[in-house]
Amino acid sequence: MDSASYPDPSRRLLITGATILAVLMVTLDGTIAVIALPHIQSALGASQDQIAWVLTSYLLAGAIATPLAGWLADHFGRVRVMALSVVGFTLSSVACGLAPTLEFLVFARVVQGFSGASLVPLSQVLLLDINPPEKQGPAIAAFGMGTLLGPMMGPILGGWLTEYVSWRSIFLVNAPVGVIAFLGLMIFAREVHLSRASPFDARGFAFVSIAIAAFQLMLDRGQMLDWFDSTEICIEATVAGLFAYIAVVHMLTARDPFIKPVIFKDRNFLLGTVLSAVTGIFLTGVIPIMTSMMQQLLGYPVLLAGLISTPRAIGNLLTIMVVGRLVSVIDARYLIFVGMALLVGSLSLLSSMSLEVSQARMGFVTFLQGCGSGLLFLPLTMIVFSTLPREHRNEGSTIFTLVRNLSGAAGISLIQAATIRDQAQVQSHLVERVRADNPVIAWSMPDFDVTNVPGVQTIMGEIGRQAAMVAYVNSYRAILILAVLAAPLALLMRKGSRGPEPIPAMHGE
User: Fold this and answer.
1) Could you tell me the pLDDT band of residue 437, with boundaries at 50, 70 and 90?
2) Positive/negative CA dihedral, 280, 286, 289, 290
3) Which residues are listed as membrane-spanning (predicted)?
4) Global pTM?
5) Topology annotation, domain 1-192
6) Architecture of domain 263-509
7) Whole-number Å distance between alpha carbons of 110 and 116
């Protein structure tokens, strides 16, 4: 395709700006509400269990709607779907900010999640599509920074707005951003509708949606309800497993299934999706337990924990900017492998830490994580879509995004649950050995007396700290093994072209 077929540089820039604003708005809302939950709970008179639905409803609706984005884009046009999604997200954000009751707020959050689900997967394909191959690296780098800044800014902006304005302003702030993004897409992006004859597979969509909904509910409520000791969690796990099986059987046997199995015949897409899922588990899952370890175990104040986490964002931004140019001259598979190696290095440092770990070392670990994830994101996206047939690109993008999101949610829940349970087991194991007839106790503390309450409390406190550190280290080691096993997948991919073949329907001329 010649360069004249692409939008001119100024129009590409404007489309890119509108697209990134839309992505930033959606990713920001995934985290901005977390810090305001106590204020919302107080204002609307909700219980702890009820207020959790403000977050759960958003995540649940987004997970269910994400697989639908590809079909909608194929049948109604990608830009049109994105513009309508921005409208729905903006209006529901205003509704959240004006919500008089908790029930109305949860309903508005459902609409928010459903409306915003298509924006991230369709945006990355749109940016690939409007740029010639030599410009696609920087375009996806800009998209990567947009997806990074949202979650990073969410707690900071949410805390400031909640403290100095109102909790309602965390939702109302989306209104001007949404208006600008909508106008940018409608004015500067054009498309020629690509008609496809395939009908909507309602049964396939229902099977996939039920499986995803049950799985997301299980993850969101598992820790609160003590996982499989809860009847609700057992039911949700059973429903998720059963309908996932039915969805796979339907996909393989139906004439025109909702998810086309042919898409998984592309080796780069299959391996890239698996690699994205694995990295989502340990990359998304490690950050919360690192933050918890710094604040609760190492005693870092919130501000210090935030400062130590800053190198992660710096490393991510630096590598994303650099790799945008490197991806056109260096094989993407090697960049992905180097990114995995950096993440393995950070996990190796984490798995050898003790309670005496220095702040400098923690900062270096977060910097390595940022550099590793920055090297992974763009090359992985480029190589996956470089070999994927044009007719499957919308669907492929939604599956790629859905798998990454679900694996990230699973990583957070499973790693936190494993750490908590491991800590309890280690602590129980250590407590059993605190007795007067233990030679180690007799040697190290000859005056030990079980009737000395302050002395016993001091020992139990130290045991708790040591048990927590052992649990964190064990979790890091398990994730390290997973990362080492996943790294070679990058080298099994086929070498991609300089960029995916563009779809002529989506550019702005």
Assistant:
1) low
2) negative
3) 12-39, 51-72, 79-100, 140-161, 167-188, 200-218, 230-248, 269-290, 302-327, 334-355, 367-388, 475-493
4) 0.74
5) Growth Hormone; Chain: A; (1.20.1250)
6) Up-down Bundle (1.20)
7) 10
